[in-house]
Amino acid sequence: MTRAGANDPIDVLIIGAGHNGLTCAAYLAAAGLSVVVLEKNAVVGGAAVTEEFHPGFRNSVASYTVSLLNPQVIADLELAKHGLKIVHRPAANFWPVDDQRYLLMRGGLADRQAAVAQFSVRDAERLPDYDATLERAANVLRDLVLTTPPNAGSGILEVIGGLRVGKRLYDLGLADKRVLVDLFTRSAADFLDGWFESDVVKAAFAFDGIVGNYAAPSTPGTAYVLLHHCFGEVNGKRGAWGHAIGGMGAITQAMRATAEARGVHIRTGAKVAQVLTNGTTAIGVELENGERLYARALAANVPPKLLFRDLIPTTSTSDATRALFTGMKTGSGTFRMNVALSELPDFACRPGTNAQDHHGAGIVIGPTLEYLERAFLDAKLGGWSEAPVVEMLIPSTLDDSLAPPGQHVASLFVQHVAPHLPSGRSWSDPREKEAFADLVIDTVTRHAPNFKSAVIARQVLSPLDLEQRFGLVDGDIFHGALSLDQLFSTRPRLGYANYRLPLGGLYLCGSGAHPGGGVTGAPGHNAAREIIRDFKGRQRGPFRAGRER
């Protein structure tokens, strides 16, 4: 297949060469469509990129770990053939509690029970049942990940789709139905209170409920976010987390190789200024340099709020429709840092700077539910947590390509910070950003006294940086909160869950669509299926106008 060139007719233009945009492009090209992908940055990958942030030190810039990447996408895009290698962590997670105590969760059930039993024998006894219950719930989610949600008011096909989903849920036992209702509606704290007694153990599981979620463990809906982080797998092992050799950019570079091998034309440094329409149908884009490109369809791999706020002309949709999307709930409460280290952290509760299994785990500073709760309350009141929650990964313990011999790189995923600081303050002020970065370093140093002195250099990204660099509105890593009103048939908004947006020929292929955020490839996969279906039905003719709902 030949690539679509500048003068060739384009079937689909894709805005944004993040992992979902590349996934969508690869599937479309495999179906015989001509595809052009436009990326504003100099490299593809969106938030899943690897770069050198200090001489000799490379790391994943924004997204930082692998689990949710869908195995069907990995296989269909032949990512291993193009160099992708994912390795397991030696241990899942490590929680320093104080100078003596810690919780280290390895992979096996017996090891995990032994770790939990240090804090509660009862909780250790409950762990197998908890694991099994979460796994059954996660299996339901896995079954729905690559489906198109039933879409309100869209005809008989959506009714049939709804019946299929309904049957999947109907076939569950009553106890599992109750668990699903709890997970979709309750807070992580309330859900975990029904299982465990130790505040440390509950905090360990509640952490997944606040990752990328500007909320406290007591906030209703955080139980679902906990579940969202449980449906992944690494190399066939469900619930596991891993590292892509070469960093997250290795994933998107492999995707790029597949897409280009199938004939996709990818343009970097090509920022879209606006979507071109004929009033009711998307017909192309205008780039920042004034160049115009036309296509039979457009797919947006950008957050829905950004698309309707910045790219779609105000005259092309009603005020009500525009407000529907610009009013989406966004904001992850996230602050990202990468640091170059002269040596590994020497934790007071588990000493040593030689590489041990806990150094290769997800290291979480967030020892109790109260700590997680206060981190959110601090940010709501003052703009950031005085004692932030920090997840630190040290991928150089698994991947020696990232740092010079004997030295290391670490990713710090930090919560909570307000997307917009209060009292006239702003993340555009470098003093704010650096002051909080100092606090983060001090927070880790309280548990690993050598950490601050080991920091050689750091890369710091505030919510504003995440928006300006990657288009993540309000720093939202999920392109929109995973709240009950923005999930499944209501994602991104009720009436637009089938990847089709109000303008004819305009699709959503990014994380703002079902099944949501994380490096999954699923929205790109699903959107491509719907686009291909429409092209087959319309035989490459002009697309009909969209219908506002």
Write the layout of secondary structure elements.
Layout: E1 12-15, H1 19-30, E2 35-38, E3 50-54, E4 57-60, H2 71-76, E5 86-88, E6 93-96, E7 102-105, H3 109-117, H4 121-145, H5 156-170, H6 174-185, H7 188-193, H8 199-210, H9 222-228, E8 233-234, E9 237-238, E10 242-244, H10 249-261, E11 265-267, E12 272-277, E13 282-287, E14 292-294, E15 297-300, H11 304-311, H12 319-326, E16 334-341, E17 362-365, H13 369-382, E18 384-393, E19 408-417, H14 430-445, H15 451-454, E20 455-461, H16 463-470, E21 506-508, H17 522-538
Question: What descriptive keywords fit this protein?
Answer:
five-stranded parallel β-sheet; 18% strand; FAD/NAD(P)-binding domain; globular; alpha/beta; single chain
Q: How would you characterize the overall build of this protein?
A:
This protein has 17 helices and 21 strands. Among the domains are: 12-48 and 249-329 and 479-538, FAD/NAD(P)-binding domain, CATH 3.50.50; 106-238, no CATH class. With 549 residues, the protein is α/β, with parallel strands linked by helices. A hairpin with a 2-residue loop joins strand 3 (50-54) and strand 4. It is globular, with a radius of gyration of 23 Å. The model is unreliable at 1-6 and 540-549 (pLDDT under 50). A 7-stranded mixed sheet has the order 7-6-17-18-19-16-20. A 5-stranded parallel sheet has the order 11-2-1-15-21, with helices on one face. It has a 3-stranded antiparallel sheet with strand order 12-13-14, with no helix packed on it. It has helices spanning 19-30, 71-76, 109-117, 121-145, 156-170, 174-185, 188-193, 199-210, 222-228, 249-261, 304-311, 319-326, 369-382, 430-445, 451-454, 463-470, 522-538, and strands at 12-15, 35-38, 50-54, 57-60, 86-88, 93-96, 102-105, 233-234, 237-238, 242-244, 265-267, 272-277, 282-287, 292-294, 297-300, 334-341, 362-365, 384-393, 408-417, 455-461, 506-508. The protein starts with 11 loop residues before the first strand and ends in an 11-residue tail after the last helix.
